[in-house]
Amino acid sequence: MRAGIALAILIGATCTAMAGSNGPYIVIPGRPGVPIIINGVDASYSVVEGDWGLGKGIHVQPTVYGGRPVLEPPVGHYYPSSGREPGYGRLEIEPAGKPRPAESFHESTSAQSTPQPPQPAVPLYPPAVITAPPYGGAGIQQNFGDPPRDFRDRTPLKPRQ
What we know:
Blueprint: H1 2-18, E1 25-26, E2 37-38, E3 41-42, E4 47-49, E5 63-65, E6 68-69
Antiparallel strand pairs: 1-4, 2-3, 3-6, 4-5
């Protein structure tokens, strides 16, 4: 049973790998009566050879074996009800006399920054040290009278009064 499943997987993988081969192809149209035209040749039900397409990094001109050339139908010309070919260009009639002068127009633009409110003056000689308030941001009172302890000092702390 296992050998049969393994053989089926092997055959399925081989068929999938062979789908991208570079051999000749027989062109069958998707709809009857709609031709497959390759470079001006009707390739319906014929053999096409050449490695080309969107999935490839190169473009090689395909060779069509058994196709027939497609003649482009003659394009008719349409003339209005008069039956004559229309004239070339536009028919412009210049008015008699001198044309009116155009209105005067002037446009200007400018840009500037928004005026700022007056800023408080910085003292000419600011203090050398700025002290922090006695209370921290979390509401804990700070003691600036005692120097900080050395972290290597193992003596017990004195109780506060």
